[in-house]
Amino acid sequence: MVLGANQLIETIAFGIPYSYFPRYALSLGASVASIGMFTSSFMLMSAILSPYLGSYSDRFGRKRLTVIGLVGDVILGAATGLVPSWEWLLLVRAMNGAATAAAMVPSEALVVDLAPPDRIGEASGFILACGMVGRNLGPLFGGTIQWFSISYGLSEQASYRVPYFVDAGFAAVSALLITLGIKESRSEYLEKIGGPEDRKRVKIPRAYKILLVCAFATGIGEGFMRPILALFFGDVFGAEPIEIGFLMTLSGFIALLASWLSGRASDRFGRKAVIALGGIPARLLGSAIPLGPNFDVASRFYVARDFMWRIYMVGLRALRADLAPIEIRGRLFGLYRSFFDVGDIIGPVMATYLYDKYRFQTFQVGGFNIPGYGVPFYMNSAIGLTVIAMLLAFVETEKRANRIN
Fold this sequence. Notes:
disordered C terminus, Growth Hormone, Chain: A, 2 domains, two-stranded antiparallel sheet, mainly alpha
């Protein structure tokens, strides 16, 4: 419950600037073309440092590194609201990516360390659900704070700064929660993971290497959807930003139920069954979105896709927990995050390039007219289905009874 609250608070704080960050960067002198660098720098630092931070958590304990990362979030959150220029903002954002990775990677491993062996899937689903709530509430929360700030007489630029101090306050609350609410005995922890020589003898399982490829493809899938949905629904159906935003928020909350229930199902029926149940329909529904004849039908495809996607994500995270030996769990979770983040960086670039290149074309396939603006959706689904097939064919998991024992 404490780690779930931490995930909720951290993702609310992470999502606070979504609704206005580009305007803040522009007000500090950044160009429109450079806006993408701010997100990329954050994700890149996270991708580079996550394996090292995970290894440190194996050596020194999960709780300690999580709290250090949260304290870093407090300092850098406040610094983001004080920067004098866009160059400083870019530097602080990159550093914040490192601090956030320091807070999140060990806390993900800590969930698995503390959860009962027969309820790891349920715990993973619960944590993912908390994160989804935070991601959905964050932009609304940040936009509301910014609106109240400017309504009470602050300048436009000052109104963009205020929410970051709230962000820093959230991180401070989260650090306090972890410090007081999590018990991690140093002696018990060292007994579980062994010494440095024990960790060196533990190799990365072959099945986990396949899982890293799956994480990369999943990151691409997550990154594909964010920019493309807004472009697609606006260009093809003339949907307004408020309609698109409402659709995304509604979809996120509907998918909450999938996160928790699929975690429990994975404990009972196995990880691969849940991955197949969620992943295959999610990829097929993703391809169906651009084929929808109107906004209502296409949005229903999107909501159904998002629901099945969350089932798939929970199964994948639970499988990650099963395949990562405790001696190097932090390092492996860090590697997983790195592969996912790299995919999440590449995904938006690929998606917008393909969309721009093919959006005005039409392809004849077996007597049917296939719109070119759907190419990113089809490519994303093809990549995802290929990787899911690899995972189902080549990754062996223990029987549930053995895993519990």
